[in-house]
Amino acid sequence: MLWKESYEIGVPLIDAQHKELFRRVELFLQVLRSEVCWDEKVQKVNETLEFMKGYVVEHFRDEEEYQQSIGYPGYEAHKQLHTGMVEYVLEFSKKYEQSNNDEQLIQQFGGKLLAWLINHVAAEDQRIADYAKKKG
Amino acid sequence: MKDILYKAFFDATQNAFKLMLNILEVSDHPAGDFKCDDEVDIAIGVTGDLQGKVIYRYPVSTSLNIVNIMSGMQFDAVDAFVTSAVSEIANIISGNVLTALSENDMNCDILPPEQCKLDDDKKYDINTSCHIRTAIGEICLEIRLNRA
Ligand SMILES: [Fe+2]
Ligand SMILES: [Fe+2]
After folding, report:
1. Which residues of B sit within 8 Å Cβ distance of A?
2. In A19, A76, A134, B143, which residue has its Cα 20 to 30 A from A49's Cα atom?
3. Where are the domains of chain B?
4. What integer pLDDT is reported at residue B37 of this predicted model?
5. H or E segment at B54?
6. What is the structure's pLDDT at A135?
7. Which residues surround ligand 1, an ion (CB under 5 A)?
8. Residues with CB under 5 A from ligand 2 (ion)
9. How many whole angstroms from A60 Cα to the centroid of ligand 1?
10. Nearest to A114 among B16, B19, B71 (CB)
11. What are the tens digits of pLDDT across the range A101-127?
12. Which CATH class is domain B2-147?
């Protein structure tokens, strides 16, 4: 499993959302990297992409609300990271649709998504937990 | 300035390997010891108070090890997925360096990662290599920057 316990930040809603995000990304990668031909995987890939577009936005909103509720000082900067990712996903989706579901493009997307998500949850989101702990 | 940048890039790389890959054995070595024939080179352009680029040289084996760890899957060749994943890591490390520098009143921005060639006939005030060895392979960062 891609998810690691060390990623937990101690807020049940956020942790559950992170776990679900990792689970979905893992499923997405399994389909994306499977040996079957592109025509066979394209539908599943597109479904996951659509799900992610909605779920990521929902998670970012909930996490930002939590940050505000504890007065997290890095809120503005963190929100910018979220906004940057949403913009990237939307831009990518448009390009991908226009390309008529080009496989190279979505392989690129998969690589970036994986690295981005791991870093974001393991490094950036952890800072929220560090602050909450320090604040007590 | 050269030493500050070298250390900032080394620290950010060490930190990324620790947090993203759980690799704790990371050390720096003389640049001349880095030898690699088959590598993925990713450039991150820098603008602002410093201008130029940093090239991340990932040997193929290091790139594959990184992606295997992150994905929990087996990758045997460098493709669009692998290139994009290691490009994002270059982007993350560079972004963290710039955040650290901005705390010292040095304001820069970075450009999106691009695959690149190593050679470059421009002259740079700061031109240094950071050769890093880790438990899953080496990488080398070519730091090529001018003061604005
Ligand atoms: Fe998050
Ligand atoms: Fe976040």
Report:
1. 15-16, 19-20, 67, 70-73, 79-89, 92
2. A76
3. 2-147
4. 87
5. strand B50-59
6. 86
7. A 63, 125
8. A 63, 125
9. 6
10. B71
11. 999 999 999 999 999 999 999 999 999
12. alpha beta
Chain A interface mutation, best of B81, B87, B103, highest count of A Cβ atoms under 10 Å: B81
| Interchain pair A2, B82: CB under 8 A | no
**Residues 6 or more apart whose Cβ sits within 8 Å of residue B72:** A1, A2, A26
In chain B, the N- to C-terminal Cα span, in Å, equals 13
Q: Does A70 touch chain B (CB under 8 A)?
A: no
CB B92 within 8 A of CB B102: no
What digits encode the pLDDT tens for the residues A28-74?
Answer: 999 999 999 999 899 989 998 899 899 999 999 999 999 999 999 99
Q: Do the beta carbons of residue A72 and residue A58 sit within 8 Å?
A: no
**Binary contact (B72, A26; C-beta < 8 A):** yes
Rounded to a whole number of angstroms, the distance from the CA of A106 to the nearest CA of chain B is 8
Task: Output the tens digit of pLDDT for each of chain B's 148 residues.
Answer: 999 999 999 999 999 999 999 999 999 999 889 989 899 999 999 999 999 999 999 999 999 999 999 999 999 999 999 999 999 999 999 999 999 999 989 999 999 999 999 988 899 999 999 999 999 999 999 999 999 8
Categorise residue B22: left if φ over 0, alpha if ψ from -120 to 50, beta otherwise. left
Fold of A11-135: Four Helix Bundle (Hemerythrin (Met), subunit A) (1.20.120)
pLDDT of residue B148: 87
- Three-state SS string over A59-106 comes to HHHHHHHHHHHCCCCCHHHHHHHHHHHHHHHHHHHHHHHHCCCCHHHH
Helix (H/G/I), strand (E/B), else coil: A3: coil
